[in-house]
Specification:
380 residues; eight-stranded parallel β-barrel; five-stranded antiparallel β-sheet; alpha/beta; globular; binds flavin mononucleotide; 11 helices
């Protein structure tokens, strides 16, 4: 039997389909080297930009925990709690491009068979800004990056032509993707924001621009909770807070809902699933909806910064899954990829009790089809 973990995604061969997503676990060469030693099939670097960033004073990420035996949710560390989510307002890498380039070279020299995806981000408000995308792309690919992930999804950018503000504008998504494709010799993945009405619209823009894959989700825009005792946000600087991003277990159901929309709309395209994964059972959701790889951030941050136990559990879980299901003829990811995609249907397609019928909000008996309005009394 072959290696059930190996897979090909956007033409790249992965030892296993699991990557560390763009975030603190991939913020340095030492972390990335440790991650490869621990067994990750790939990494997406912390997003590299040309514009200098300065992060807020104090912590950039905290973890929201839920009491096991009550409704209490809080960032305060306390016993008897389970992880609910991560909350962050960290900007992109504070290291410049010329810090990253020699490090990408060194990482690839040390780990030629692991996949290094360079996450990049620039503005999109002028031709000069668009050239920045190309400058970043050329420098990273010349250093040996195997692919790009375009950060069209960072939720903390004030600029209207950056991050998730690009990701909310289909035309900008298309233009930026096309600009990078003009110079790219390696696959281009577009990482979209979940914070739009219909992610299929932005994905279409990315594919029109030539994207080889879509990555989804980035974090969901959110605020920390107000502490009922201090009456301050649990995370703040001098009492002030700004919109940040929610990740971790809480976003798994929301992220797979976005992914189901995407893979149904584009069944033949490539998708990298992100959001709320720490076990193989969770990653399986993304695979069965049609993803070819899965990325992890929050769970890895909480496991020795780069997730050595998480990747072991993911790989072991995947091997055990294919052993358990060998009788079905399932030997590798391609045998199960997308096998539950078509189980997500419109509400009215779900079976009702035998004696009842439902017409999806339409009243099939009335000619005027006005749901919610009483029948006009006849003859009155
Ligand atoms: C502290 C922190 C920093 C992040 N920085 C980036 C980033 O620079 N670029 C990016 O594309 N995503 C960034 N992300 C988003 C993650 O890559 C990932 O999409 C998100 O956390 C959802 O995955 P998770 O549920 O496994 O955490 C960041 C997330 C966190 C928690």
């Amino acid at each position: 039997m072959g290696n059930p973990l190996a897979c090909t995604f956007t033409g790249l061969r992965f030892e296993n389909p699991f990557l560390l997503s763009s975030a603190p676990p991939t913020e340095s060469d030492s972390n990335i080297m440790r991650a490869f030693d621990a067994g990750w099939g790939g990494v997406v670097t912390k997003t590299i930009g040309l514009h200098p960033v300065v992060n807020v004073r104090g912590p950039k990420t905290k973890f929201l925990r839920a009491d096991a035996d009550g409704p209490h949710l809080s960032m305060h560390k306390r016993p008897g709690t389970a992880l609910h989510s991560s909350w962050n307002w960290e900007l992109i890498s504070d290291k410049p491009l010329d810090w990253w380039v020699p490090r990408i070279v060194r990482i690839k020299q040390a780990h030629p068979d692991r996949i290094l995806v360079a996450s990049i981000m620039a503005g999109s408000g002028s031709d000069r800004e668009l050239k920045h995308w190309q400058e970043l792309a050329i420098a990273c690919q010349d250093a040996g990056a195997d692919a790009f992930e375009l950060n069209l999804s960072c939720p903390h950018m004030d600029r209207k032509d950056m991050g998730s503000n690009i990701g909310k504008d289909t035309a900008q998504v298309s233009i930026v993707t096309q600009v990078v494709k003009e110079v790219a010799k390696v696959p281009v993945w577009a990482k979209l924001t979940p914070s739009t009405t219909d992610i299929v619209v932005e994905a279409r823009g990315a594919f029109l621009g030539g994207a080889d894959a879509i990555s989804s989700s980035n974090t969901f825009p959110s605020l920390p909770l107000i502490d009922p005792e201090t009456l301050e946000f649990e995370m703040n600087v001098d009492g002030y807070v700004s919109s940040g991003g929610l990740g971790g277990p809480a976003i798994l159901p929301q992220s797979i809902a976005k992914m189901a929309q995407l893979t149904q709309a584009f069944p033949d395209k490539a998708f990298s699933g992100i959001g709320g994964v720490s076990t193989f059972e969770q990653a399986l959701n993304y695979f069965m909806l049609g993803c070819g790889t899965v990325q992890v951030c929050t769970a890895a941050m909480l496991d020795h910064a780069i997730g050595p136990n998480v990747i072991k559990a993911l790989n072991d879980g995947m091997v055990a899954f294919f052993e358990t299901h060998a009788g079905k003829g399932w030997r590798s990811l391609e045998d199960i990829r997308g096998c539950r995609r078509d189980r997500v249907v419109t509400h009215s397609q779900i079976k009702r009790p035998d004696t009842k019928e439902y017409f999806g909000g339409h009243d099939a008996r009335a000619d005027d089809d006005q749901e919610g309005y009483a029948q006009v009394a006849s003859g009155g």
